[in-house]
């Protein structure tokens, strides 16, 4: 039996043959890109919103309720608690490094972008049970938010698109979650 060994002298790169090691474009798992700079003001705004229970209909449930930063960015229960302390229909997976996921939610129903899964729970009757209009109105009536949104987004009106974008930026911020263990608006 003849055994052949690949040595540095016969390796393709040693012979000047270039090889493309990139993943095919249709491959769902791609190399992780280096972190891109984020708007720190927007991330700080997202931090405040992440902890704010006023986004829920009951005024008791925040994003931190289901993705608790002190519990590994999860709630560590089989199904999350929703309006009137009912058991919700789904488990809240950890949000730790979720910006690196190929898809969001355990069943992959949302793309990798964090904006969609951030907006869903607010209006879902089985989660925060609010509405986008109600959440926007509550935030606009809270003086610190009006000033901060104007500084960060450059407009007076608060819309759910900006709310979800800010929370997504917070979740993408390098150092999330250890740096963010409390909110100043509560």
Q: Any key phrases for this structure?
A:
two-stranded antiparallel ribbon, 6 helices, mainly alpha, Cytochrome Bc1 Complex, Chain D, domain 2, 186 residues
Explained architecture:
This protein is mostly helical. It has a single domain, classed as Cytochrome c-like domain (Cytochrome Bc1 Complex, Chain D, domain 2, Orthogonal Bundle), CATH 1.10.760.10. Helix content is 31%, strand content 2%. It is built from six helices and two strands, in the order ααββαααα. The chain has helices at residues 40-51, 63-66, 115-123, 132-140, 143-153, 160-172; strands at residues 103-104, 110-111. Strands 1-2 form a two-stranded antiparallel sheet. Strand 1 (103-104) and strand 2 form a beta hairpin. The N and C termini lie far apart (74 Å). Residues 11-19 and 179-186 have low confidence and may be disordered.
Q: Roughly how many Å is the radius of gyration?
A: 22 Å
Structure summary, number of beta strands:
2
Coarse morphology: globular
The CATH superfamily title: Cytochrome c-like domain
Our count of helices gives 6
How many discrete domains?
1
Let me know the largest β-sheet.
2 strands, antiparallel
The CATH architecture can be named as Orthogonal Bundle
Poorly predicted regions are: 11-19, 179-186
User: Considering DSSP H and I runs of 4 or more, what fraction of the residues is helical?
Assistant: 25-40%
Structural class: mainly alpha
User: Strand-and-helix sequence, N→C?
Assistant: HHEEHHHH
| CATH fold topology | Cytochrome Bc1 Complex, Chain D, domain 2
Strand content: under 5%
Name the strands of the widest sheet in spatial order. 1-2
In CATH's first tier, which class applies?
A: Mainly Alpha
Distance between the termini: 74 Å
Question: Overall pLDDT, averaged?
Answer: 75
